[in-house]
UniProtKB/TrEMBL annotation:
Record-given protein name: SDR family oxidoreductase
Signal peptide residues on this chain, from the entry's feature table: none
Top-level taxon of origin: Bacteria
Organism expressing this protein natively: Kitasatospora xanthocidica
One protein family per Pfam: NAD_binding_10
InterPro entries tied to this protein: NAD(P)-bd_dom (IPR016040), NAD(P)-bd_dom_sf (IPR036291), NmrA-type_oxidoreductase (IPR052718)
Domain NAD(P)-binding: 6-180
Amino acid sequence: MYVVTGATGQLGRLVVEGLLAQVPASEVAVAVRSAEKAADLAARGVAVRVVDYDKPETLAGAFAEGDRVLLISGSEVGRRIPQHRAVVEAAKAAGVALLAYTSIPGAATFRLADEHKATEELILASGLPHAFLRNGWYTENYLGDAAGTVARGVVLGSAGDGRVATAPRRDYADAAVAVLVGEGHEGRVYELSGDAAWSLPELAAELAKASGKPVGHRDVTPAEHLDALVGAGLPQGFAEALVDVDAGIARGELAGTPGDLARLIGRPTVPLAESVRTALDA
């Protein structure tokens, strides 16, 4: 079986769709907290295994010997290490054939990287056959409110001219599918990113070009950036994490373009300009 955790999330659903395009539904399972959210997958023949990362006992039947498992990192920052540990221990007890983990670029030193690096250490210590999918940033992180950004006329950040090599979630999902269904990925570490890195001023230029409206870039201090994010309604802790990421981008920590993602998916990654047009069309 191919088992995807967190399968009802944005990345997880794309991975499941990718698997269903290549293997029978009877060979796909999802480990999720809510069976209701996965009801559409169950209706298509996907096995639904209800688990709770905070209740390790629920993971006892989540995996079976020989399963190939994708552990999509949890969304609860600050709680992910014990949650991921529970999954790793359950996978080891079951004797899975492969545990692939969606991690973070190895160059990252900002705080959000800490739990990913700790999870990699847990997996290494377990002795499980594994693959690390060190996912770079999703282009959607910047385009979730593309129309709103155009309406405001400004891309605001504190990364200066730092560059970030993004790709859409679908590209990363396709890479995960390639590792799950492919051979020879055990022990591999993939630094996954878009083919080209871009800066926030370039993002502003692409939004302006695609919309036909003026969009500029405003670089602010970290303190100003934090105030703007909190003022827009983001929780303080999440806003602080985003500002910390921008500092990492300014240091060049998300700018790497080693080409691993394009090689895994067998095609170029989707360029920023295309993603901008898609977001605005939507």
